[in-house]
Every structure is written in C-alpha cells, then in structure tokens.
Amino acid sequence: MTVVHPVRTYRSDEPLPREEQLAWRIAEVAADPVAVPDETVDMVINRVIDNAAVAAASLTRAPVVSARAQAMDHPVSRGGHGAAVTGCALDARTSPEWAAWANGVAVRELDYHDTFLAAEYSHPGDNIPPILAVAQHVGADGAALVRGIATGYEIQMDLVRAISLHRHKIDHVAHLGPSAAAGIGTLLGLATETIFQAVGQALHTTTATRQSRKGEISTWKAHAPAFAGKMAVEAVDRAMRGQTSPSPIYEGEDGVIAWLLDGPEGRYSVPLPAPGEPKRAILDSYTKEHSAEYQAQAWIDLARRLGAESPELRDPENVRSIVLHTSHHTHVVIGSGSGDPQKYDPTASRETLDHSIPYIFTVALQDGGWHHVDSYAPERAARPDTVALWQKVTTALDDEWTRRYHSDDPDEKAFGGRVEIALADGSTIGDEIAVADAHPLGARPFARADYERKFRRLAEPVLDAAEIERFLDLARRLPELAPAEVADLSLVARAGVLDSVPSPRGLF
User: Fold this and answer.
1) Do 2-284 and 294-433 have matching folds?
2) DSSP string of 103-156?
3) For the chain, which residues make up each domain, given as ranges?
4) How far apart are CA 293 and CA 295, in angstroms?
5) E strands along 9-115, which residues?
6) Any idea of the CA torsion for 351, 354, 357, 362, to the nearest 10 degrees?
7) Given 2.60.130.10, 3.40.50.150, 2.60.40.1120, 1.10.4100.10, which CATH number is that of 2-284?
8) Tens of pLDDT along 98-157?
9) Does the CA dihedral 392-397-399-403 come out positive or negative?
10) How far apart are CA 224 and CA 210, in angstroms?
11) Crossing angle for the helix pair 220-240 and 62-72, to the nearest 10 degrees
12) 175-221 per-position pLDDT tens digit
C-alpha cells in the first residue's frame, strides 16, 4: 500500500532524523529491489519508443543541433564505455552527463512526449535520457534499465501529486532532478545513503524560476529538463565518491520549502510506495498525439471536430467571439488569463505559440488537425484570416473545470473545457471535451500500435527503414536486452541529415 509522508519545515534547533526526511524516503523507494510489474514494463517500452519518435523529429532543430555539438565536443570519461547521442553513429560516444544533456534536449524540443499533471506539471519521460545514458556508460542490461526508468517515473510523479512548484514560480524541473537521481540509483543498485545524497544535490542544483515558460519563451525551455538530467548524473557521481549534500534539503530552516515554496508554515503529504510495493506511477501518465502543451491536446481534438462539422467557423467573418471556459491552469498559463500579449503575436516564437491556446485552437479549427512543424510555421501564424480569427479567441476561468482538473478521481479528472462560439448572425454553437482523444479515457486511447505509428511517422524523414526496424526490435525486447544491446539503444540518422545543418561553435 502507498505510504503518505508528512513534510514540513523544521527549525535548526528542531531535530529531524534523516530517516524521516523526504530525500531519505525517496532514496528508500529507489533502493527497494521490488520487481517491476508487467504492465509497468509494457508502458516503459511505450515511452522509450515515444521519446525516440520526438527526438528523431527534432534532429535538425537549432537547440538540438547546439546541444549535440556540445556533447560531441566532450570525450568519453575514463570510468566507463560512454553513451550514445541521438542521431550520431553508435560508436561516436560521449560522457554520460553530456549524452543526457543532448538527448534530453532532443526529447523535449518539440514538447511532444508524455505528461502528468496534478499539484504540479511534469513530463516524466524526461527521466529516460539521463537514466539510459548512465545505463549505456556502465554496461547495464535491459532489466536494470527498466527498473531505473520505473523509479524515475514513480518519484517525479509522486512529488508532482503533492508539491506545487508553479504556485511559487519555480520551474517544474525541480521535481525532475531528484527523480532522475533516484532512477539512476535504482539502475546502479546503490545504497540508500548514496541515493539520499544524490537526491539532495540534484534538487539543490535544479531549482530555478518559471520565467523560462513565461512571456516570450526562449529555446531554454527545451534545455531546462536536460540540464536537470545532466545535474542528476553529476550528483550521483559525487555521491558515489562520498560527497554529501545540504540536509534537510526539503525541510531545513533555509531549505526549499521554507524559502522557495510554501514557507515555514507549509505542509505537504507526499505519497510514496511502501516497502515491497511495485512502482506503477507510469500507468497514470499520458502521452501526446499533438505537438503542443498538454492542456491544448483536448482543445485540438475539439477544434478539429468542430471545424469538420461546421466549416463556416473557419471564416473570421462568420464569428463574433470564441470563449474557451476552462481550468485555472489553462486560463493563466496558456490562455488569455496569463496577461501575455505575446500569445496573440503572429511573429511570436514557436515556443511561445506552443503556449498559446487561442492560437492553437484557431489553427486546429481552420486546418482540421495539427502538425508539429507546419502548424508553427511563421507563414502559418501570419495568415490574415488566422490572425483575424485568433484575436477573437479568449479563455475564461471556470470553477468546475478547475475542480475537475485537480480531481484525484481519474474518471472525472479533466484537461479540457467548454467552448461557446457566438456567430455573426446572432446564433451560438457550444460543445465541450474533458480529455484528449489519445488519453486512456479518451475516444481513441493510445496503445503500442499508436506509439509505433507515431515513431514511424516522425522518424521516416530522417532514418533509413532498416534503422527504424532495428530500433523497434530493441525497444520491444527492452527488459531482455544484454548490455551490448542497451548500448545500441539509440538512433542513427540517415546519411547527410546531420550534415544538412551547420554545427555551431562555442567555448568547448
């Protein structure tokens, strides 16, 4: 059964045994050798395929090219075999922390992989690049890799269930540093003490503000989780060498809770698996069918349906206003409630448009779908009829949709809302959607065939057919892979793909 751990700030003169600290509890979960359930294994395979799909699609995008160049300018460290970098030849290895960095940026660049939303937001698939990089470096087998990934998902999602970071304008990757460190600890079979120190260091080095996801959003949005993964690898290395961490990192008088979160009066209840309880959190996460912020997934599905049923809605001359009644998060983060004028700017960056539900709803309504490149193209955003309709779309805060967004009941938890469209002729059209079509409770829940279809669609422009099949064969057999096969669990781009874009030079 799940154990709920109470967490609060402690004064320096108020003793808190390390065994009662949240970082120690996390480490205990990571060190528990409990078997991984079959359904968790199956979903880990799905998410490895999903990560590879979106990484393939981003190989020639500038942030990925930059991160890959940085990684390949660093040699393999002396303590292992090194790790593969997505797109590069399998024998072109780099140090594991730099592979975690490059591959983490590739996975995150298009904002197109899995998600979990509760008290905080997260993309738990961000745990996979650092854990896989370390697995390749140390020569781990597939079974160990699966165990590590299961822990990474479990810890990040349990923290996300209980501790809100965004409320205090702290970026959500502050939950990723500890989870990736814990996952690496499981992979390596480290002692609780060592994992405890790594978790504390990883948290301490990955707390930052949410400005990376506010206003004019920069390319750092894709780098932030990769940085957390890189810091997790380095934290584990230091902990293995006997180095210690700030403690209590969460509960201390000058710790994270006291100064970055709810303050000295803050109280949290963090659910973690009991000793011997299997790690199943990954089963509660969900992937994306569309390359956009997760809160936009259901709205894209609703918009494409409305556009097909009522094509006249695509013409701004026929529409007076479109109001999306939705949750607090959707309204203030990606909606008009954010107060960000950039969300209505046709010249805004891709990262900014990805966080604009007025833009996303408009394009999906007009185009009847969503494309990870074409829907963000500058010429698409600047199309006059799109701009005219876009300016008529606003969001409105709805208490019931907010309640459902935060519900602990998976059957009523919702990420959509209700749309009210006022037409020029005085009539109105209304409709609603609770979850995306691809959600486990949606109209077309994603299964293995959908993950593989997504991978093939995104990989075919940049990988040879034989390479696609080679990777899928490895991924399907993930828990059975020998160390040499784990070492090859990467993607090799078709000849000429990586050379088609210039590799930037920097300090290294």
Assistant:
1) no
2) HHHHHHTTT-S-BEESSSEE-GGGGHHHHHHHHHHHT--HHHHHHHHHHHHHHH
3) 2-284, 294-433
4) 6
5) 83-84, 93-94
6) 110
7) 1.10.4100.10
8) 999 999 999 999 989 999 988 998 999 999 999 999 999 999 999 999 999 999 999 999
9) positive
10) 10
11) 30
12) 999 999 999 999 999 999 999 999 999 999 999 998 887 777 788 99
- Residues 135, 145 contacting (CB under 8 angstroms): yes
pTM of the model: 0.91
Residue with tokens 């395929």: 49
Superfamily of domain covering 294-433: 2-methylcitrate dehydratase PrpD (3.30.1330.120)
Q: How far is CA 366 from CA 300, 369, 393, in A?
A: 11, 8, 13
Strand order across the 319-326 sheet:
393-397, 319-326, 417-423, 428-433
Query: Which residue, chain included where needed, has tokens 């992937």?
Result: 287
- How many CB atoms are located within 10 Å of the residue 367 CB? 18
Q: Is there a contact between 117 and 413 (Cβ–Cβ < 8 Å)?
A: no
In Å, the largest CA–CA distance within the chain is 73
- One-letter identity of residue 99: A
